[in-house]
TrEMBL record:
Name of the molecule in the record: Import inner membrane translocase subunit Tim44
Keywords: Membrane, Transit peptide, Transmembrane, Transmembrane helix
One protein family per Pfam: Tim44
Region Disordered, residue ranges: 35-71
Subcellular location(s) of the protein: Membrane
GO cellular component: membrane
InterPro entries, per the entry: NTF2-like_dom_sf, Tim44-like, Tim44-like_dom, UCP031890_Tim44-rel
One GO biological process term: protein import into mitochondrial matrix
Family, as annotated: Belongs to the Tim44 family.
GO MF assignments: protein-folding chaperone binding
Length: 237
């Protein structure tokens, strides 16, 4: 029994030593895993760059943010749809847009049509307060003088605004910091001027007349006030 135990102890030690030696040899040959090993070659992704491989598959690229002062690619789309590109009118409207990014020609025309009706009716009614808010100083002075002269004679204008048939921008330009836009407006109006006794001395209270005006509106693009004012009037024959 003693001889068997001795043999067993010697054999066990021998195999343990052999196992340790083999383990260290394998480690030296194969190396240890550190976590930074190169991944195995994949033929289906070999053509992709390292940068592409690192991108998540479900990422959607967002539009690039415009740098400050950089115009939007469609900044003149509304103007080009309103006035033919490369014309003087288109160029003038673009210049105004450059100085007033919020400018839109269609919105301007809609506002000008409303202002036209308000001014025509305010003049007929002698409404100086409304006119003062819509006219430049020079035009206001001219309108008020005409109203004063009419009142001095005890004359009254009887008017009924029917509507605007056409309102077309005919020119646009910058004069310094001021944007100037001229429109040709064709409207329908029933108007008659009566004297102190009520007799009609001008116009016809029963007839719709076609009126053609060329009006120019202006606005200082440096001002926070978004309103345009009438700066020139001309009646077209």
């Amino acid at each position: 029994m003693a001889e068997d135990m001795g043999f067993f102890d010697f054999g066990t030690i021998f195999f343990l030593v052999a196992a340790v030696v083999i383990f260290f040899q394998l480690r030296n040959v194969l190396g240890r895993r550190t976590g930074s090993e190169r991944p195995p070659f994949d033929p289906y992704t070999a053509g992709r760059t390292r940068e592409d491989a690192q991108k998540p598959e479900n990422v959607v690229s967002l539009p690039r943010k415009r740098a400050p002062g950089e115009p939007a690619s469609d900044a003149y789309a509304a103007i080009d749809a309103f006035a033919k590109p490369d014309t003087d009118l288109n160029k003038g409207l673009r210049t105004i847009k450059d100085n007033d990014p919020a400018f839109d020609p269609k919105t301007f025309v809609d506002g000008a049509k409303m202002a036209y009706e308000m001014i025509v009716m305010a003049y007929a009614d002698g409404d100086r307060k409304t006119l003062k808010n819509l006219l430049s100083r020079e035009v206001y002075d001219g309108f008020v003088a005409a109203i004063g002269d009419r009142e001095a004679k005890s004359e009254k204008i009887q008017s009924s605004f029917v509507g605007i048939d056409k309102a077309d921008i005919v020119s646009a330009e910058m004069k310094g910091s001021e944007a100037h836009i001229t429109l040709r407006i064709v409207s329908e109006l029933i108007s008659a001027t009566r004297d102190k006794a009520g007799a009609v001395i001008d116009g016809d209270p029963e007839t719709v007349a076609e009126v053609k005006d060329v009006w120019t509106f202006a606005r200082d693009t440096r001002s926070r006030d978004p309103n345009w004012k009438l700066v020139a009037t001309e009646e077209e024959d």
